[in-house]
Amino acid sequence: MQMRAPILLFLFWSAVPVHAQSWEAVRSLNAGDRIKVLETGGQEHAGIFVKSSAEAISLTVGRDAVSIERSRVRHVKVRSGSRRVRNLIIGAAVGLAVGVAVDQGLGTYLRNETGESAGTRAVSYIAPIAVFGGIAGAFPAYRTIYRTR
What is the CA radius of gyration of the chain? Predict the structure, then answer.
């Protein structure tokens, strides 16, 4: 009975459809949205969405207009500003964990041997939070709206 639960859970998750698989999601994009399109050959195009039809998607990459047939599209991602805040929070949490680890390891040694000051201890927490949070929040997040099966 205990072995059935993981198997049933695996079957359930494999049967759940991946989010936003329909080409209709691509057709509902607004002109001017920043998108990334990955072709089946591995070439990625990042640019501004122009239009889509049942047969193709068109975008502007730099000064060039690019049209890609639907059959050659592996996935389409749209830029999502709301995920940037989420990524910043996750990065800050990772930075806090690194700060705690450094304080408990190296910080303990320094307090015992050299008399670490409160300012130094504060920096050992603040610096990793700022660095990891900044790195995570600096890169724009994209969410996948279409992926071939």
Answer: 23
User: Which residue type occupies 55?
Assistant: E
Domain around 121: 82-141
DSSP E strands in the chain: the ranges are 34-39, 44-52, 56-61, 64-69, 73-80, 141-147
Residues 72 and 92 grouped into a single domain: no
Pair 90, 119 in one domain:
yes
Q: Is 17 helix (H, G, I), strand (E, B) or coil?
A: coil
β-pair type (73-80, 64-69): unpaired
Question: Does 116 lie in the same domain as 68?
Answer: no
State yes or no: pLDDT of 103 exceeds 50.
yes
Residue 18's pLDDT is 47
Q: Which residues contact 26 (CB under 8 A, 6 or more apart)?
A: 52, 57, 76, 145, 146
* Other beta carbons less than 10 A from residue 3's beta carbon: 7
Domain assignment of residue 23, yes or no: yes
Q: Is 1 domain-assigned?
A: no
pTM of the model: 0.58
